[in-house]
Amino acid sequence: MPIPLQDGWLYGPVDSRRYGRSLGVNPLPVDRKLCSLDCLYCQYGFTKAQEAAGRAELPGLDELKAAFEQEFSRLAAANDLPDRITVAGNGEPSLHPDFLEMSRALCASRDRHFPGASIGLLCNSMHLNRQDVVEAINGFYDEPAMKLEWGTAECFAAMNRVPASRFKALLSGLEKINRFVVQSLFMHSPHGDNSTNQEVSLWIEHLNHFREHIVRVELYSLDRPPADAAEATRLSVEELASIADRVSANGFEVEIY
Ligand code: SF4
């Protein structure tokens, strides 16, 4: 069963083992997922199934700016200072048409109220053909986490249910991101499996290609159950550790979550 969507533009802060006190930003609709991928493993369920569920009403730039200022000043006054702000939310945040200006405003509010907090981003790497998205990621995010978890275009298409032809554009888009964390989720499914020896070997070739851009590699398997029809299952601890060993042997910093 997929989990419920975030019901606001800001959520938390909550205590996170990974980031300390962590505040989430959702610049997306609150009544349905909005994403350009339809991942088998998505914790919010299938994208297409959600398209009929709500109106996909995006918050406006001024509404987001006001929400940042109001909530950040409230948290600062309460001395509840986040260590980390992560832009993610109900789908793909870079789909917001004002992503660049939203990111600039978020950074300015952070500087005013808790300059010690880092700003992260969970990004599906699909919109790097937009210059404003590239400018935002390079300019305002301390640790953009970019999705890269396939060796071949065929596996990318099967796992994320998009045309295989978009894989090449995704790879050339990543060339434009100066420094990024690689976020990679591995899973088994009869509909698409990126954990085979061939997929992992070719994926490591991509990592080596982007070596100068990569801060570290973060490995995941399924944490929350996706839609039943995905028939997706998680990798064992040993399988994930074996992939991590291969990444590490190639000279990358790697973390398993
Ligand atoms: S990119 Fe993220 S939000 Fe979009 S479908 Fe995949 S897992 Fe879900």
Order of helices and strands: EEHHEHEHEHHEEHEEHE
Strand fraction: 15-25%
Give the distinct bound molecules: iron/sulfur cluster
Mean pLDDT: 94
Estimate nothing, just give the exact number of structural domains: 1
Topology:
Layout: E1 10-16, E2 20-25, H1 47-50, H2 61-77, E3 84-87, H3 99-113, E4 118-123, H4 131-140, E5 143-147, H5 153-160, H6 166-174, E6 180-185, E7 187-188, H7 197-209, E8 214-220, E9 233-234, H8 237-249, E10 254-256
Parallel strand pairs: 2-3, 3-4, 4-5, 5-6, 6-8, 8-10
Antiparallel strand pairs: 1-2, 7-9
Helix pairs in contact: 2-3, 3-4
The chain binds iron/sulfur cluster (SF4).
Describe the protein in words.
The protein contains eight helices and ten strands. The chain has 257 residues and is of the alpha/beta class. It has one domain: Aldolase class I (TIM Barrel). Strands 1-2-3-4-5-6-8-10 form an eight-stranded mixed β-sheet, with helices on one face. The protein has a two-stranded antiparallel ribbon with strand order 7-9. A hairpin with a 3-residue loop joins strand 1 (10-16) and strand 2 (20-25). Helix 2 (61-77) runs parallel beside helix 3 and helix 3 runs parallel beside helix 4. The longest helix has 17 residues, at 61-77. The two termini are 21 Å apart. The mean pLDDT is 94. Iron/sulfur cluster binds next to loops. Iron/sulfur cluster (SF4) is lined by residues 35, 37-39, 42, 44, 47, 91-92, 124.
Observed structural traits:
TIM Barrel, 257 residues, 10 strands, globular, 19% strand, alpha/beta, eight-stranded mixed beta sheet, binds iron/sulfur cluster, two-stranded antiparallel ribbon
